[in-house]
């Protein structure tokens, strides 16, 4: 199996704990559990991956870490300029091309009709982000592992990754490099919004560096923690098994802690939750887990 569950190497200076992945073969119905050895490597996108041989039976993957996050919400770059394609670094050019879920070749006319009049650079990138945010409805029940940017555009409903895939596609059509990001966005200093999950956002290449944008949460957020980047969700799959697997439980939590390591309480709100939480029947399995639609030779669990 391959697991992509470490934080991104760029965050190493801010780590205040280890960042280890524990893989255990569970002694079910009788203990003890056995630790499964893993080997870490860095993939072509610079993400840390873990590979291991999974024994038959019940398996548990777990990990935790402490990181010093930015004190302020996402930075805005209202003056950021779009670079000419001729001036882009060679390694960035791949993020202008079509990919598994981002069908850039199908959206040229649509993108130019909607955003061609926008000022190149930050204004155009944000206009695309906000257009996707306004046009697409979030719904866990609408998730599926095969959904592409074309499907999202037609159906107008999806989960985090679907918002980002459509935004990435439209952004690339306007010759702004865009890449997919997965990581943590917990309820930091805002009311509880539902059961935790990994999250997805995207980055655009402006003024010579990558800038965070989020078509679902299209406002500055605290506690955005990077795990991995790629062309789209296919490059940052959480787990890949080269055989049949069945994901039976899934839990992610991200909290702010004080100097003593105590969890900081969230503010209370009498209003509705900010984000819709999955229903009880959904909370144990990420919506993108490739089950019935998977090949028996390979199973992938993805990002909500």
Q: What percent of the residues sit in helical stretches (DSSP H or I)?
A: 10-25%
Radius of gyration: 20 Å
Mean pLDDT: 88
Low-confidence stretches: 270-296
What is the N-to-C succession of helices and strands? EEEEEEHHEHEHEEEEEE
Secondary structure: number of strands: 14
Distance between the termini: 20 Å
Structural category is: alpha+beta
What fold name goes in the CATH topology slot of the domain at 85-234?
C8orf32 fold
Largest sheet: 5 strands, antiparallel
Tally of alpha and pi helices = 4
Could you give the order of strands across the largest sheet? 4-5-1-13-14
CATH architecture field of the domain at 85-234: Roll
* CATH class value of the domain at 85-234: Alpha Beta
Describe this structure in words.
The protein is of the alpha+beta class and 304 residues long. It has a domain at 85-234: C8orf32 fold. The protein contains 4 helices and 14 strands. The strands form 4 sheets. The chain has a 5-stranded antiparallel beta sheet with strand order 4-5-1-13-14, with no helix packed on it. A hairpin with an 8-residue loop joins strand 2 and strand 3 (34-35). Helix 2 runs antiparallel to helix 4. Mean pLDDT is 88; it is low at 270-296.
Secondary structure blueprint with pairings:
Elements: E1 2-3, E2 22-25, E3 34-35, E4 39-42, E5 48-51, E6 59-62, H1 108-115, H2 122-135, E7 137-138, H3 149-155, E8 157-158, H4 160-173, E9 178-185, E10 199-206, E11 209-213, E12 224-230, E13 239-241, E14 299-301
Parallel strand pairs: 7-8
Antiparallel strand pairs: 1-5, 1-13, 2-3, 2-6, 4-5, 9-10, 9-12, 10-11, 13-14
Helix pairs in contact: 2-4, 3-4
């Amino acid at each position: 199996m391959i697991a992509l569950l470490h934080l991104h190497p760029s965050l190493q200076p801010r780590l205040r704990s280890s960042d280890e992945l524990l893989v255990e073969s569970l002694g079910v119905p009788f203990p003890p559990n056995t630790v499964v050895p893993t080997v870490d490597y860095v993939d072509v996108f610079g993400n840390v991956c873990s590979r291991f041989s999974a024994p038959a039976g019940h398996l548990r993957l777990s990990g935790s870490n402490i990181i010093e996050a930015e004190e302020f919400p996402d930075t805005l770059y209202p003056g950021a300029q779009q670079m000419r394609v001729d001036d882009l670094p060679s390694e960035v050019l791949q993020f202008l091309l079509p990919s598994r879920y981002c069908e850039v070749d199908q959206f040229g006319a649509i993108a130019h009709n909607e955003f061609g009049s926008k000022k190149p650079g930050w204004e155009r990138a944000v206009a695309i982000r906000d257009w996707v945010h306004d046009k697409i409805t979030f719904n866990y029940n609408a998730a599926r592992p095969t959904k592409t940017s074309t499907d999202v555009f037609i159906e107008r409903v999806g989960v985090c990754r679907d918002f980002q895939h459509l935004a990435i596609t439209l952004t690339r059509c306007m010759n702004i490099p865009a890449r997919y990001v997965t990581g943590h966005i917990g309820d930091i200093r805002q009311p509880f919004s539902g059961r935790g999950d990994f999250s997805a956002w995207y980055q655009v290449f402006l003024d010579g560096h990558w800038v965070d944008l989020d078509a679902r949460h299209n406002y500055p957020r605290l506690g955005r923690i990077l795990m991995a980047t790629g062309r789209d969700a296919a490059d940052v799959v959480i787990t890949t098994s080269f055989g049949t697997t069945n994901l039976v439980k899934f839990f992610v939590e991200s909290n702010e802690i004080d100097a003593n390591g105590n969890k900081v309480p969230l503010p209370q709100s009498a209003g509705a939750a900010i984000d819709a939480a999955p229903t009880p029947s959904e909370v144990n399995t990420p919506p993108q887990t490739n089950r019935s639609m998977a090949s028996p030779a390979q199973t992938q669990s993805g990002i909500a």
